């Protein structure tokens, strides 16, 4: 006997049973369904079999539990609520329509469903008090009686595509029974009738209202769809909240661009846990950071929790931050310097970390970076409602987050993001930046300069659009002046930014004799030439016998780095001044002679932490020996060697260097002694002819930068002789002592009594950041600012809010040949720049988005920020539209998801653009005929959707519209899934260093003396590795592993050393912060929503 039960296995689905009942019972007069959920998609699938059924009744349940809970929250007694029941049904139906498969036949079926309700063929009711969990389908034939009993199906299947079993990918496991006994059918029919009589009518107008609120009944124009795109993308950012800046200290103005920065920055803090505050220099980033910190204080659990803020900044900026903190009355705010992070004893105290000049933490191998990363990822004292503790928020303040290479951005992001599990669209930042770094290395090796430049620009554009655009607040002066709202606000408040003039190159010609010496010197300093120096004085460890070299980890790499640093220093000193270079070259010669002397005396001291050269040059060798003897027991790097402990190549290279340097040094000392200095002569000539000309220098103030303290002191002395004695010279040694002099004479915002004691300020890089010098408007870069970041920081000292002059002038010095032709003069200067670059080698790493590779941008580019944020322009456009059309804006903003438009455009015929989103990711696709979907940036999408005429009509969607949109949805799903599973890859795909670290940790689990708490730490350490949470953890584990191969220790001792490494990372905070191990990929995370789409086709013919 066949069973009456059935599941949805194979073809044995509810749909097949219903189909069979209708096929074999063509005279069914009434079909009743009692279901917990009704989906239009389910009704559509069944509709062909209902065509001849005259009466269809469907009784649906509502979410009674939620309604009861709402009543209880309001202290009310729950009674039947027809209004609530109807609202719940409408909400569910609307959601069903919006979430249904995006297919034309599904859409037709949904419209047929609505038509059946309007015609009366389908009657729907919702029960207001019972949560209908039972599913009953009743078939009553014409003349229903004991002899013609009909049928009833009951079980678990709802009237949905999944419940029916018609969608293979979402098919549920169902269990149902088909009954034909009259008593069974009658019992079910009577029970249904009773519930039906208690239920609330869902009138046709309610279903029509749902249809009309969805995309199926929404007719819009291309113009409206364009503004819907902007409204969806910017969301709350369109709101301008003037209350974001309240209670400002005296002297501070309420600026609209700063208000936007506060609001946008705060949203990014909440969404991603941190962000880059990267407005260009001089726009008030410190003020913005303080205002965000104040807003955070009152929104982070206040008053039950009182947040603490920690500011980390370079020592030179501490006083500025203290003053700003006190003026803004920033409560619970501590300030620490970059080098003092390791002294912080209670990291959990802090809720918000502000890192000023964050680009200084771009090296993830530095000890300070490790200290800061562990601080930023430690927990807080604030408990959240779900029982976890809040994670710290981080603001990275830097006008120049990208200095040299893509890893600069990656490492700074790693301060608040786990690189393999980020909150950004690019979930696996480690993989993304590994690709960028590989492309960057290839670009640097490209021999074609223009090709190299294009490749580098493309890499940084990818980083900007894919990563930075989601996590940065950055405006340039160009942005502020091109956007009307900001520009008008600045003008009303009397704020004017000076115009940055193109750099003026000051070429100082060398005499033929001096040029010959100059060129021979550059060739000697450059690696790989016949006359190159070996720099062996700084590479001694490389030449140690292998058994001695083992004592010094990475000896070869460290030696090479030291040699490169010395080569770079000498090249830059030559560029700075002949005086500074001669002094540096003299020290190099003396150091080389000292080491040769040690070889000749048979004793070589290796003491990296002691000033060996200084002791020997001063004739204090006995003191040195005594000091080495004293320190040898506590400093393992100290070694007293014999000549035979080294390869002969060391002494050979030392002697060769001495032979090459000595005659060159003699020539330079003659130059310095004779007073030959064409660069200084040209400087004085410019001083007298133009630098103090009141037409360009209204205030009579001048700022001169040099990287060399010796050059600064030399200039001061020579200028005094030339009659310029009102000169203030600043370096690291006197910066703090002369702070008031600097501010009183050069800071236009100085609140005290301004003074005019000095006309010229000469400074090393200590004044290149964190100080105002904007009473001046002329900067002289006495030596070449090889790094674009440093150049922008220097210019930012005079290009600030409150600058007094209408223009800023920059003068850069370059050597050239003594020739008559200006073009030839420039060409010779560029050749010398190229020679310098070759001498500096890769240590310089000057390739950046702001520099041309051939001339480094120092001749041709305006160093002011010509970059323009197109997103900001679009936001301002949306604000203007809202201000001018408030009612239309509200209507457009409320348009439902999946809005779409057909648009006439022959150039893009048969193509589609789509905006797709899930909870973590916005994506835009361009789909052309016969091509795979192409992901594009938001700004590219805005250009595709842009419509400038409000009366532009729409046209019907082309035949491929749905297929193209679904192709984009599939591409979106694939990208999200691939990104999400990347960090959960199988062991075979884990990098070798991570694999070794994990296996090393796994080995400890076999030890029976490992406690449960220690096992938990091991699990969390593996989790941290899998998420790329800490840059240094993997390195420390692998180093311990290597060390144990050299020196055997017991398992217990090894475990102690391991947990000494793990405990400072506060891994237990990961559990408390709710950081999961392999967070399962939830369907809601991958399932996208189609926000808007637009398809293009040929215009309709006049007869159409």
Report on this model:
There is one protein chain. This protein is an alpha/beta fold. Helix content is 45%, strand content 13%. It contains 40 helices and 30 strands. It has an 8-stranded mixed sheet with strand order 1-7-6-5-2-3-4-8, with helices on both faces. Strands 17, 18, 21, 22, 23, 24 and 25 form a 7-stranded parallel sheet that branches. The radius of gyration is 37 Å and the shape is elongated. It starts with a strand and ends in a 7-residue tail after the last strand.
Short description:
The protein is an alpha/beta fold and 1104 residues long.
Strand and helix map with partners:
Blueprint: E1 5-7, H1 14-24, E2 28-35, H2 40-46, E3 55-60, H3 64-73, H4 82-99, H5 104-119, E4 122-126, E5 135-141, E6 151-155, H6 161-164, E7 175-179, H7 182-198, E8 200-202, H8 204-212, H9 222-234, H10 256-272, E9 274-277, H11 285-299, E10 309-313, H12 318-327, E11 333-337, E12 352-356, H13 367-376, E13 379-383, E14 389-391, E15 393-397, H14 407-413, H15 429-444, H16 449-466, E16 472-473, H17 477-482, H18 484-492, E17 499-500, E18 504-510, H19 512-525, H20 546-549, H21 555-576, H22 578-601, E19 604-606, H23 612-617, H24 621-631, E20 639-641, H25 648-674, H26 678-691, E21 702-705, H27 709-721, E22 727-730, H28 739-746, E23 760-763, E24 778-781, H29 788-796, E25 807-817, H30 822-840, H31 870-884, H32 886-893, E26 899-904, E27 911-917, E28 922-927, E29 934-936, H33 938-945, H34 961-981, H35 992-1004, H36 1012-1027, H37 1031-1046, H38 1051-1062, H39 1068-1072, H40 1083-1086, E30 1089-1097
Parallel strand pairs: 2-3, 3-4, 9-15, 9-16, 10-11, 10-12, 12-15, 17-25, 18-25, 21-23, 21-24, 22-23, 24-25, 26-30
Antiparallel strand pairs: 1-7, 2-5, 4-8, 5-6, 6-7, 13-14, 19-20, 27-28, 27-30, 28-29
